[in-house]
């Protein structure tokens, strides 16, 4: 089963502030554990929304509207993600619970979402 662990953005990540060396070390160790267990498919951090582009579709079958960042509500933004290949929902939750606070300022928030898979992938 594939799960995306979505790391939500915060004011600090949107400001482009890098994590402390202590948090970087903890995240490196966490990533190494994911790799060693064979569950990490991919993990990436994202640039702040100030470098982002958003397309919205206000009319059915109409042309998309392009808006350049930054985007205002950091609670709705993504700072990074992990793609995990696990045996169960419970295992995905267990791995998410082991992650250090991804923002390091008590602002961290992680969302787990199962990825749709085609029958031949299951």
From TrEMBL:
Domain YCII-related: 1-117
A Pfam cross-reference name: YCII
Entries under Gene3D superfamilies matching the protein: Dimeric alpha+beta barrel
Family: Belongs to the YciI family.
PANTHER family reported in the protein's UniProt record: BLL7163 PROTEIN, BLL7171 PROTEIN-RELATED
Name of the protein in its database record: YciI family protein
